[in-house]
Amino acid sequence: MTGTVLRDLINGPDLVIAPGVYDGVSAALIQNSAFPVAYMSGAAVSASAVGLPDIGLATMTELVASAAVIRRCLSKPLIADADTGFGDVTNVFRTVREYQRVGVSAVQLEDQVFPKRCGHLEEKSVVDVGEFTAKIEAACDARTDALIIARTDARAVNGMDDALRRAARYVTAGADVIFVEAPESLDEIARIPAEVDAPVLFNLVPHGKTPPVSLEQLRDFGYALVIAPGAGVGGAVRGITDALAALARHDTQGAGLPSPRRFFDALGLPFWERIRGAYAGSAADA
What we know:
Layout: H1 2-10, E1 16-21, H2 24-31, E2 38-40, H3 42-50, H4 60-73, E3 78-81, H5 89-101, E4 106-110, H6 129-142, E5 147-152, H7 154-158, H8 160-173, E6 177-180, H9 186-195, E7 200-203, H10 215-221, E8 225-228, H11 230-248, H12 260-266, H13 269-278, H14 280-285
Helix pairs in contact: 2-4, 5-6, 6-8
């Protein structure tokens, strides 16, 4: 099962890099890439599927629906953002079950107060550590194969010491991976894997609150997993912006796809052509 595959990758010798995915096209492109894992960004889904900013407006149903589309195009393990779990412990339990139903390999939950905000925005708040510990316990009881990733946003609210204390509690509650959001210096980045007794995730957000850091540094610090949530949607924004600029310049060749055939091939066109061809004779005889 994909949760077991993901666990083996995270516990392996190499730094695992999971680019951001948010729809069928981005999933197909990652499927055809060398990356072994994908990360469904709640912010990217909120923007693309819902058309709203990442401030807790996307629902569990909308995120699960996006995960189902992504899984249709992706056989690799999928880590999925589940925000705060969309309610109390009962909602968290259902959220994990719904994510697993569509084939998600890891469910990421965070300890922000609902409605949450993007981890690199101001004015965040976190719930009591006991409240979120109960959510992690419920998530672990609900899961069968999926990993549970516990994210804390306490660094921005109470400082790094509290974030690390929370991380320790979440490990005890059963979290498989810890995600301390938005460290603000290289020293803080290095401190997290050194002080957390579990595999640790790093969130790669260029131009966010965290300073630039190389993948080599993250590997040396001891991180197991790096997510790049903006890699997919950010690339799409740049590409669409460039295509619109080309069209405005009357550049008719720079405003579209490299090739319609290549685009549809990435989405599985050869498979569907084989299916249609295999039954063509029977349809003609009917």
